[in-house]
Write a structure and sequence with these properties.
Removes the phosphate from trehalose 6-phosphate to produce free trehalose. It comes from Acinetobacter ursingii. The structure is a single chain. The chain is α/β, with parallel strands linked by helices and 281 residues long. The chain folds into 2 domains: 18-112 and 188-266, 3-Layer(aba) Sandwich (Rossmann fold); 115-185, Trehalose-6-phosphate phosphatase related protein, domain 2 (Alpha-Beta Plaits, 2-Layer Sandwich). It is built from 10 helices and 12 strands. The strands form 2 sheets. The chain has an 8-stranded mixed sheet, with helices on both faces. It has a 4-stranded antiparallel sheet with strand order 6-7-9-8, covered by helices on one side. Helix 2 (20-29) runs parallel beside helix 9, helix 3 (58-67) runs parallel beside helix 9 (250-267) and helix 7 crosses helix 8. The relative contact order is 0.18. The model is unreliable at 10-14 and 270-281 (pLDDT under 50).
Length: 281
Amino acid sequence: MNINIQNENSILASSHYDRCEDVVNDIFSQNKSMALFLDIDGTLAEFQIDPSSCFISKDILDLIQHIQQHLTVAAVTGRDLSSAKHMFGAIDLPIAALHGLLIYLNDQNQFSKHSQSELFQALETILNKDTQRYPEFTIENKQHAIALHYRKCPELQQIASLIMQRLQHQHDQLRLIKGKYVYELVWNDIDKGQAIAEISHLLNLQNHLAIFIGDDRTDEDGFSYVNQMKGVTIKVGEGATNATYRFKNIDQVNFFLRGFLERLRDTAIPKHLEKYGEEHV
């Protein structure tokens, strides 16, 4: 595998980060069909003050598109479906949006666990009142969930937490999850572990080796589920985690995807050999 080790060394400042080559070797040593599940923000796209300004680099998009030729690639994200699809541009792939509340396979096959609720419109009204003194907050009503972002002023984290905890205590059908610079209220029965399980069931991937890459607390349910299924889990960045491996940042995710694709190409059975087992000319 021709990963540029010198470039990778330049982004690894501590020995507690894993090397892409070691992770790729582990994956391919298991000799199983694979499915790749990817978070978006903080994993494929750098954080921006305005979430709508985030983007996935062309380099990573190209890698994903090429990897799709070999196996299923799915996104598992807290973004709503429209926003997530926009991030991938012309690439069509399965998406678990809103932490798994909405499962998109293609334009003809979409599944939702809950119908759109007026509850979140009411919560938005309450949050607008509760945050009047803090213009740095951004409220995001996702129709099936609601988020309070404090990216513009991280010092407001404790106030954001108190506001959202108070709302959650008044609505026990919802649970509070913490992401990077955001608190979010979602339905109790929604998490990324269930999202990965649902996509795996719908696409008959249960016997595949699941690989999940994510970066924050909202991804931990996904890590736990994939670990339970004997898959491979990768945490991006700092913080306690259930993931087996850890990458430093998005640059290292890029290195991994590149090395992963190279190994896929090296081990792929040419299509003209798959049917007959040998070449016929």
